[in-house]
């Protein structure tokens, strides 16, 4: 709870991952991938309840083993490859009443900590914004990015005068997918976390890796194992 507002955290984890098979329960740093997000959410000072939204019995079993509540089974029509990411969140809000704020935590961001979560919630409250999403400095500047046409000609993505020196490049941010915070009523109306009213909570690149490929799993495994050793 923050400022008298009750907070629900939702961890979405469907079973039909195509990029990395069964990625939500793959071992990373000595425990299932999803367990890192469950643990971080459970340690939050502000979150009142942590629930899983899943269609998969094996993921549900693992989540329960690590202390996550599973109050409902996600319908199959909300578990497809083309299901919008907001759909499971709105489904959860329809099934769980009495909350003012929702925090979406994707299990593919295992490096994110409880301090990051609380920092985002605190920042959202202080900004008095309807929504807040986590971002990190972009590793590659879009001012140095190009598209390639059918004749192999380069076209700048941002059509401005070319900036040659790195130190002259403007700061740019990228969504890191780790934390999404919003007022429940506002989210039901907007049906998205991202509008011109949304504010960005900056996280370091070192905790912003979003697992999408096998190499990401290997990197996270090494980083989390090192964190455990410390």
Walk me through this protein's architecture.
- β2 and β3 form a beta hairpin.
- The strands form three sheets. The chain has a six-stranded mixed β-sheet, with helices on both faces.
- The chain has six helices and ten strands.
- The chain has helices spanning 33-42, 57-65, 86-95, 114-127, 184-190, 214-229, and strands at 7-12, 27-28, 31-32, 49-53, 101-104, 131-137, 146-148, 154-156, 173-183, 199-202.
- The model has no long low-confidence stretch (mean pLDDT 90).
- By secondary structure, it is an alpha/beta fold.
- The longest helix is centred in the last third of the chain and has 16 residues, at 214-229.
Which tags fit this structure?
alpha/beta, two-stranded antiparallel sheet, globular
Report helical residue fraction.
Answer: 25-40%
Work out the radius of gyration. Answer: 19 Å
The chain-level structural class is alpha/beta
Strand content: 15-25%
Main sheet: strands, sense, barrel: 6 strands, mixed
Helix count, DSSP H or I runs of 4 or more residues: 6
């Amino acid at each position: 709870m923050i400022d008298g507002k009750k907070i629900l955290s939702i961890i979405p984890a469907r079973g039909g991952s195509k990029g990395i098979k069964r990625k939500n329960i793959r071992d990373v740093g000595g425990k299932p991938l999803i367990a890192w997000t469950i643990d971080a959410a459970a340690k939050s000072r502000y979150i009142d309840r942590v629930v899983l939204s899943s269609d998969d019995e094996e993921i549900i079993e693992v989540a329960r083993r690590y202390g996550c509540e599973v109050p409902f089974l996600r319908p199959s029509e909300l578990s497809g490859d083309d299901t919008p990411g907001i759909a499971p969140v709105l489904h959860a809000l329809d099934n769980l009443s009495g909350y003012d704020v929702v925090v979406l935590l994707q299990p593919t961001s295992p490096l994110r900590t409880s301090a990051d979560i609380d920092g985002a919630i605190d920042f959202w409250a202080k900004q008095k914004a309807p929504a807040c999403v986590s971002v990190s400095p972009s590793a590659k500047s879009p001012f140095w990015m190009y598209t390639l046409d059918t004749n192999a000609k380069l076209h700048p993505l941002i059509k401005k005068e070319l900036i040659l020196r790195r130190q002259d490049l403007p700061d740019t941010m990228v969504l890191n997918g780790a934390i999404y915070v919003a007022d429940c009523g506002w989210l039901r109306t907007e049906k998205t976390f991202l509008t011109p009213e949304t504010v960005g909570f900056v996280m370091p690149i070192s905790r912003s890796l979003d697992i999408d490929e096998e190499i990401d799993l290997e990197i996270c495994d090494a980083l989390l194992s090192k964190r455990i050793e410390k």
